[in-house]
Every structure is written in structure tokens, then in C-alpha cells.
Write a structure and sequence with these properties.
The protein is of the alpha+beta class. It has one domain. The chain has helices at about 5-25, 30-40, 45-50, 60-85, 90-120, 120-125, 150-165, 175-190, 195-215, 220-225, 255-275, 285-310, 315-335, 340-345, 355-360, 400-405; strands at about 55-60, 130-135, 140-145, 190-195, 235, 250, 365, 375-380, 385, 390-395. The strands form 4 sheets. The chain has a 4-stranded antiparallel β-sheet with strand order 3-2-10-7. A hairpin with a 2-residue loop joins strand 2 (about 130-135) and strand 3. The longest helix is centred in the first third of the chain and has 31 residues, at about 90-120. The radius of gyration is 24 Å and the shape is globular. One of its GO terms (cellular component) is lumenal side of endoplasmic reticulum membrane. InterPro entries: Peptidase_A22B_SPP (IPR007369), Preselin/SPP (IPR006639), Presenilin_C (IPR042524).
Length: about 400
């Protein structure tokens, strides 16, 4: 007899994972590219780039070789700590770490969602609040927020706070676990990228053997994953009515983020090909992205099928790594682009002259030298400078829009 409750659990988990990778892949596109896709408008790069965007960290092939080694050391270290010292204190320590990380991750993910809903052009019409604290020539703190973010940050922090400090019905619930895990996944895919298909293949190949060894060769992976009480996994109840009586199916974030970085790279390569051929940025073709995403879904389906048939935990990267790599190789071979795509490197694009552009567009900054009670104004470029010690606060937005209209 077909177990529809369990099948619905697999389907729900698969949907969450695929949607997370889809959103994170588009989140990995640089701000100027996302803006062009949202509106298809040509704007000045410095004006169009949002100040609250962070530059992603690129993984090189040298980093990829070290990933399985570092992962093995950390995994086995956690296993030894739990085995000989107990799980209580390590869970307590990680609880506080992920509570703080969850506040930032949830807030950033909610801000990204709001920006996508209203559109980049509309988002940039809100006032931009800049806060910078410095000591001498060194910046100690630098923040840049649009005004809606002031309301979105507390809302984004709620899941993490409720997960740790909520009542019996909300504390560590599957819903809050999934919300936090999805926010971690989105931000990881947006801010941690790989620089080439060569690096991606090395990373997936190394973690293929890492996953197989620690799942099939030892009890370490399963023991750590089921013991740690932190939101680093996706959960779905084994029930069509979301009853928790039968427990949950589980998928670790590593099985989303690692292949997800490869899928996101495929999307950025599609964009590179489209812009090189002069295609419109809003509707560029995505053969490599769709092939990689389909391969990920197919690999996860195979993982769940094998897990269901043999009734045992499976190393998902055993199926996901070959699926993602093969999707790239086959797509490149069919299109006759294997050598070109293998040599391609996703370089970081930085905007030039951002400081001068910011000055000429009416950005208001307040600079305060220590011990100086003076207030001065410079009418030449419309800036107002106010002293307060070593901190700088700046707001623009409405005044910038007015200057543009004039």
C-alpha cells in the first residue's frame, strides 16, 4: 500500500530545497545584473548599485581542495566532543551562536525578499541611511540601510528569537527550523560563490568522497546530524496533515548549499553568455542553469528513492555531485562550448569612481572631528557636515531624487 504521508513529506522537502536554490542562485547575481533583470533599464552603475549590498566571497580551486579536509576535521571534532563530554554544552554553545547568526540571516533574507517584491527601482527611491563609526583612518563599523529595513530587521529577527526563547509550542518547532534554515541557505548561496566550473567540479568531487565515507564508513555523520539541536537542516512532517506523530524527514543544509553553489554558477555563466551576445538582460536564456537545477532535483529524487527502498540514511552528495557535474558537461558538449565554459572564470566586477559619484549626486554626510563643536555647510556640492567625534551618519534619498528631477 502506498504511503502517501511519507511521499508528501519527500515532495515537501524537495520543493523547499529546489526553491531555496532557485532563489539563492538569483541572489548570487551582482546588484547591477539583478537590477537590469528586474527592470531592463540602463542606469549609471554607481547610481544603480545599492549601498547595502555585500560583495560575495569567491572560492578558488585551492579553497575547494581544502573543503573536505576542513569539513572532516570539524565533523570528527564535534563527534568526539559529544561522545566524551556530552552533547548538552556543545548544543548550548551552538544555540547562542545560531541565535545571533539567525537574527542577521533572517533580517537580510527578509530585506532581500522585500526588495524583490517592490522592485529595485522602487527600493532605491527610499531614503538611504548610512552609519559609520571610525577611529582615525580606520572604519570600525559601516552600515547602509534603506528606511524600510528599519522595520524589516526586527521582523526578520523574530524566528531566531522564538526558536531559542519561545514557549513550548514555538521553541525549536519544525516551521521555525525551516524558516531559519532557508534564510541560512539563501544567504550562503548569495554571499559564498565559486569562481569557475573547474572549482565547482573539484569541490563536488571532493565532498562526494567526504559524504560517502562519513555516512557509509562510520556512524559519525548520522550521529552528529541527529544530535545537534540547531537549525542547519530542513524538516518536513511525515504526514499530509502535518502531524508530528511519525516524526520528520530531514535534509542537511550542506546538501543544499554545496550543489546550490554549482547551480548558481551556471546561472551566472548563462548571464555572461547572454550579455556577450548582446541579448536583453531581462529575458536571457538559461540552458546551463535549468540543466543544473533539473539535475539537482533528479539527484535528490534518486536519493529519496534509495533511502525509501533501503530504509537507511543516504549520503545525498553521492547522487547530487555526479548529477550536477554531468549536467554541465552534457550541456556544454551539446552546445559545443565545453572548452570555453571550462576556461571561463567568474570575475568580481567592482564599480569605479563610486566615491566621486556619491558626492556629485547630493549624498549628505555628517563628519564630526573629536572636540569640534562647529557646524559648517558647503553649498558647492550641496553637502552638510556635522561634527560628533569618530562616528559618521549620513542620509540621502529624497534629496538625491529631487536633484535628479531638477
Amino acid at each position: 500500500m502506498t504511503d502517501w504521508d511519507l511521499l508528501s513529506s519527500y515532495a515537501g522537502l524537495l520543493t523547499l530545497a529546489a526553491c531555496s536554490i532557485y532563489a539563492g542562485s538569483f541572489g548570487s547575481l551582482p546588484p547591477s545584473k539583478r537590477s537590469a533583470q528586474d527592470r531592463g533599464a540602463k542606469q549609471d552603475t554607481a547610481c544603480d548599485e545599492d549601498e547595502d549590498e555585500e560583495q560575495p566571497e569567491r572560492l578558488s580551486s585551492e579553497d575547494a581542495w581544502l573543503f573536505p579536509v576542513i569539513g572532516s576535521v570539524l565533523l570528527f571534532g564535534l563527534y568526539l566532543v559529544m561522545k566524551y563530554f556530552g552533547k548538552e554544552w556543545i548544543n548550548w554553545l551552538l544555540q547562542w551562536y545560531f541565535t545571533i547568526a539567525g537574527v542577521g540571516s533572517g533580517s537580510k533574507a527578509l530585506i532581500s525578499l522585500a526588495r524583490w517584491v517592490v522592485g529595485s527601482e522602487r527600493w532605491k527611491q527610499y531614503d538611504n541611511i548610512k552609519i559609520r563609526a571610525s577611529k582615525g583612518p580606520r572604519d570600525l563599523l559601516a552600515l547602509s540601510l534603506r528606511t524600510p529595513s528599519l522595520c524589516l530587521i526586527p521582523l526578520g529577527a523574530l524566528p531566531s528569537i522564538l526558536y531559542t526563547f519561545g514557549g513550548s509550542e514555538t521553541k525549536r518547532s519544525a516551521l521555525l527550523t525551516d524558516i531559519l534554515a532557508l534564510s541560512f541557505s539563501y544567504n550562503a548561496l548569495s554571499l559564498l560563490t565559486i569562481d569557475s566550473f573547474k572549482t565547482g567540479s573539484i569541490l563536488l568531487s571532493g565532498l562526494f568522497f567526504y559524504d560517502v565515507w562519513w555516512v557509509f564508513g562510520t556512524e559519525v555523520m548520522v550521529k552528529v546530524a541527529t544530535t545537534l539541536d540547531v537549525p542547519i537542516k530542513l524538516l518536513w512532517a511525515k504526514s499530509m496533515t502535518f502531524s508530528t506523530d511519525r516524526g520528520f524527514t530531514m535534509l542537511g543544509l550542506g546538501d543544499i548549499v554545496v550543489p546550490g553553489m554549482f547551480v548558481a554558477l551556471a546561472l551566472r555563466y548563462d548571464y555572461h553568455k547572454a550579455t556577450s551576445n548582446g541579448e536583453h538582460a531581462r529575458s536571457f536564456k538559461k540552458p546551463y542553469f535549468y540543466a543544473a537545477l533539473f539535475a539537482y532535483v533528479l539527484g535528490l529524487v534518486i536519493t529519496m528513492t534509495v533511502m525509501h527502498v533501503f530504509r537507511s540514511a543516504q549520503p545525498a552528495l553521492l547522487y547530487l555531485s555526479p548529477a550536477c557535474i554531468l549536467s554541465f558537461v552534457l550541456t556544454a558538449c551539446v552546445r559545443g562550448e565545453l572548452n570555453e565554459s571550462w576556461r571561463w572564470t567568474d570575475e568580481i566586477q567592482t564599480s569605479k569612481g563610486s566615491n566621486s559619484t556619491e558626492e556629485t549626486n547630493g549624498t549628505k554626510e555628517m563628519n564630526v572631528p573629536t572636540g569640534s563643536p562647529s557646524i559648517s555647510s558647503e553649498e558647492a556640492n550641496g553637502s552638510v557636515h556635522l561634527s560628533t567625534g569618530s562616528s559618521v551618519v549620513a542620509t540621502d534619498g529624497q534629496r538625491m531624487r529631487n536633484s535628479k528631477r531638477s
